[in-house]
Amino acid sequence: MSDETTPDDVSVIVVGGGPAGLSAALFTVKNGLETTVFDTDETWMHKAHLFNYLGVGSVGGSEFMATARQQVDDFGVDRRQDEAVTAVSEADDGFVVETSVASETQRADGEAVDADDEHEADFVVLATGANRDLADELGCAFDDDDTVDVGVDMETSVDGAYATGAMVRPEEWQAAISVGDGAAAALNILSTVKGEHYHDFDVPADAERVFGEHVAE
Ligand SMILES: Cc1cc2nc3c(=O)[nH]c(=O)nc-3n(C[C@H](O)[C@H](O)[C@H](O)COP(=O)(O)OP(=O)(O)OC[C@H]3O[C@@H](n4cnc5c(N)ncnc54)[C@H](O)[C@@H]3O)c2cc1C
């Protein structure tokens, strides 16, 4: 990233669209960073029913995900559902992310032809649940318990690469923890971009400006 970069020029790729990934994406897109999420929809939330998410009495995991997806879509995330990330590598000034989407095109022998693509970003947030393969291939340091080594800001040993959610803990897997991890990663990215500590505080007077006609009457 050059010294003259403004938030408008900064791009973030989030790998994984479960609670951790969508939380990171919500904070980065809401605060002006170009944000893309790749997700294969294998989130554990489809098996869960939440009674332990503070502020939400009871909600099905799939219903929670539908609301979360709508929320990030409303703020302008480029959400690439069913596009799998196959590799993440460091580039001169950021990261290259390779993806593959199963195409409906079929070869003469009946095999499906996958469409591969490459994307670049200044920051990458890994949020692939308990699957840590991409972090390993990127060269992120691991702890002795085989989880990705991060601090409270969720940044890995690779500058600009973050790991969040189930991949950074051996077992303590909860939706609320993943959502917190995603927010922590995003705020650290925003602080880096803005060059000073950043927080995303809104007040009641912002409600109409932010949500417009979505505000409850
Ligand atoms: C049966 C069950 C019940 C549960 N009940 C509760 C509960 O009551 N309360 C609670 O708090 N938690 C519960 N959980 C745990 C909760 O579901 C997880 O903590 C949470 O889903 C973890 O979020 P995450 O974002 O870290 O990972 P995930 O939700 O696993 O999301 C990871 C996402 O990344 C995608 N992905 C992975 N690799 C790639 C790739 N290469 N390219 C693109 N996308 C990729 C996956 O498809 C998936 O959508 C339950 C889990 C299970 C299995």
Task: For the structure shown, list the relevant keywords.
single chain, about 220 residues, alpha/beta, FAD/NAD(P)-binding domain, five-stranded parallel beta sheet, three-stranded antiparallel beta sheet, 5 helices, about 25% helix, globular, binds flavin-adenine dinucleotide
Write up what this structure looks like.
The protein is 26% helix and 27% strand. The protein has 5 helices and 10 strands. It has a 5-stranded parallel sheet with strand order 5-2-1-9-10, with helices on one face. A 3-stranded antiparallel sheet has the order 6-7-8. Helix 1 packs parallel to helix 2 and helix 1 packs parallel to helix 4 (175-194). The structure holds flavin-adenine dinucleotide (FAD). Flavin-adenine dinucleotide binds at residues 15-21, 38-45, 47-48, 50, 52, 84-85, 127-129, 131, 165-166, 173-176, 178. The site of flavin-adenine dinucleotide has 32 residues, from helix 1, strand 2, strand 6 and helix 4.
